[in-house]
């Protein structure tokens, strides 16, 4: 049925199709997904499941916005988002590494806590304030690169968090696969006892990686409030942290794979938003379902091929 | 010998009573800090919460009304836990139950109440059961982790509801100014138990559901399979239990209970379904089930506590301007302490060996999701 509707509207679609605009919107929408997915890669490669990324992004979106509002400085907002992301990730780390709480439960605790804390403080501090907002991060068009036809608009005319995301994909890839630290991280995620025997401090490696995932999630949270809309709204992340985890799984726990998978989800998202404006006669709700359904399909379909770090989810206790 | 028995009894007492009590205490302590930080007085807030839940006019019946869905939903999540499944999708299954229930309520006419009510209730259970079975099948057949699939299905359920009811959708009441379904027929409404209040027949349904679920889990073959899979899926498989089929069954049961909660809310309380049917009840239910440690009988006091908090929160927000979201902070902290006996021991310097950590996703969180299933079970094969 959907194919039929699409076919009927195809000429109109093609006339209006703005593929460059769609590609740009995809990169932008992929920003928080990729950042959270990179955080997931770092954390899970060391053996700690991090479904708290949703709550981390929600809280940091709030903290980043509040800090930017108070200091009138967007850079301070970014910094606050990153630091608070590391703090919440620290809670997840302490609970799951030190107190051996089931990592899924710990993540769920943080997700519920994030809803509660942002809800309470939003109501007290932000809801009825009429102060001028801090605005959004400026659009930086890179000199020269930004002038390349098409490519310049798609890749080199973005806001700070998106640039950071593009750089971090490469950085995290290098860390995980080309450094001693990355090797140790993967060892802790695959066989912590062997890593321990080889003299690696498993707990410390896991702590650092979970904190790093918090920093990445914090940057992702900042995207929502101070890059995208210059405001904070309750539950602004809307499940993007979970979609990011699906992207990480689809990307087989690799940074580049996670980025490509995020692009796929973001494209579904951006396409859904655009098809509505193109006048396609599919109810907008169904278009909004696209990324969620795609996530289910991916999580179900990618299983046979994607193999998780062997020790992910298992607390490590020296015996 | 006597001492050993007494010691064991004391250990059980601590597990069943002390841990939840300590967790609750810590939950309110953390919430008090949040209230302080937001510039309000926590004592005022908690007093208002108590008044709103118990002592105000009609407060107690309202608390019981709020308790009803928590009983069904708590049982739903607890059933999943018993099989080692973390059903975060109770919220979506609740939506589907409400949709199916309200549909039968306003579209089926001319049926006496004695048939209309069971019909609508069963429709709600069917809706929740189907929605819950999807992640069960995905897990059994493809090894897709239920935490991710149930969360995603929640969003799909919200959008589906929005499409059906909002913006003159297929189930919208075209004459109403607000986006909502038509009212259900009088014959589909659950009778009120206490005249002058909203306390309805659902309370008795909830009280009946507890022994039924207990019997199902503890005294039937299905329940035995569910518990066996939850304790050790590999051993259960070796013993000839079809793990895949058991997962689908338990998710179906869990979804049916959540759907029952949704239908009950429509038939007993609101009598129509608004497009903005945002409840959050299904998420609270996770805390209810954890607080009750998945014991069906313990669901009752846990649900009553959460019903009281939900019922009192509105008055608290009205009186002290503290957001109702404060309840989430209490809940999250409660789950945290329940799931971390080591943390409680460390905080209170308890020297006895703590109860074993609560294992929810027994096979190790997402690892189970992401590692290929040990032996892909096909439903056709296992059904026979």
Feature tags:
heterodimer, A: 319 residues, mainly alpha, ABC transporter involved in vitamin B12 uptake, BtuC, 2 strands, 72% helix, B: mainly alpha, 16 helices, 71% helix, globular
Question: Oligomeric status of the shown chains?
Answer: heterodimer
Low-confidence stretches of chain A: none
What is the chain-wise order of helices and strands of chain A?
HHHHHEHEHHHHHHH
| CATH C-level label of chain A | Mainly Alpha
Order of helices and strands of chain B: HHHHHHHHHHHHHHHH
Mean pLDDT of chain A equals 88
Q: And the CATH topology of chain A?
A: ABC transporter involved in vitamin B12 uptake, BtuC
Structural class, from helix and strand content of chain A?
mainly alpha
The total of beta strands of chain A comes to 2
What does this structure look like?
The complex is a heterodimer of chains A (319) and B (384). Chain A has 319 residues and is mainly α. Chain A has a single domain, classed as ABC transporter involved in vitamin B12 uptake, BtuC (Orthogonal Bundle). Chain A contains 13 helices and 2 strands; from the N terminus they run αααααβαβααααααα. Chain A has helices at residues 2-16, 19-45, 53-71, 74-98, 103-126, 151-155, 160-178, 180-190, 192-197, 202-229, 240-250, 255-277, 284-301, and strands spanning 140-141, 157-158. A two-stranded antiparallel ribbon of chain A has the order 1-2. In chain A, α4 (74-98) packs antiparallel against α5 (103-126) and α11 (240-250) crosses α12 (255-277). Chain A is globular, with a radius of gyration of 20 Å. By secondary structure, chain B is mainly α. Chain B has a domain at 65-321. Helix content of chain B is 71%, strand content 0%. Chain B has 16 helices and no strands. Chain B has helices at residues 2-37, 42-55, 59-82, 90-107, 113-142, 146-165, 202-219, 221-231, 233-238, 243-270, 281-291, 296-320, 326-339, 341-348, 366-370, 379-383. Mean pLDDT of chain B is 86; it is low at 360-384. The chains are: A mainly alpha (319), B mainly alpha (384). Chains A and B meet through α5, α11 and α13 of A and α1, α5, α6, α11 and α13 of B.
